[in-house]
Amino acid sequence: MAIRVLLVDDQPLLRTGFRMILEAEGDLAVVGEAGDGLQAIDQVRALQPDVVLMDIRMPRMDGVEATRQITGPGRDGPAKVLVLTTFDLDEYVVEALRAGASGFLLKDAPANELVQAIRVVAAGEAMLAPSITRRLLDKYADHLPSGEEPVPDALQTLTEREVEVLKLVARGLSNAEIAADLFVSETTVKTHVGHVLTKLSLRDRVQAAVYAYESGLVRPGAQ
């Protein structure tokens, strides 16, 4: 079945461009559009998309609050949010990730990256452009704890190996890179990541990365 996509951006020309790109792919279907966050919430309820391509800066309700209402705590719907960012201008991307977004994409990304990003998010992998994710977290380090806060009790539920895996996820490593670093198989890494997400009640790898920074397990800029 095709991946159902909802386009959310206050610029009609951008939505048209995205639609043309996505509708050229046999496994993607644009099921609707919205020009602001309020419309996005209504469209998600009505259309039940798999992936919401979400702009951040919009009138009436921005993409952060819309993301929070679509995928945030207490929400268990099928929709995953892929945030669109200009990177240098959007200071709210970390907040969108905290709110429940499954990843982000630069607005000037090539068409093939847009298509692949939607497929990855729909598949639940969620950790898009790991190096950029980490750079973004470092850029907005002032949004994150200083590391002086006590370590959350939830981290105590993780095994030593799971903590290692969580640190590497936060550094932006893929499953293959983590497997090579720890000298284990990718299947083993996937199992560890699954355990981490379950024990910490996290939705995906992006939230795991943010959690690692927020908890002080990983310091911004640390190698």
TrEMBL record:
InterPro entries: CheY-like_superfamily, NreC/VraR/RcsB-like_REC, Sig_transdc_resp-reg_C-effctor, Sig_transdc_resp-reg_receiver, Tscrpt_reg_LuxR_C, WalR-like. The keyword Transcription applies. Residues 4-122 form the Response regulatory domain. It comes from the Bacteria. Keywords: DNA-binding, Phosphoprotein, Transcription, Transcription regulation. CDD domains: LuxR_C_like, REC_NarL-like. Signal peptide: none annotated. The modification 4-aspartylphosphate is found at D55. This is Response regulator. The lineage of its organism: Bacteria, Bacillati, Actinomycetota, Actinomycetes, Kitasatosporales.
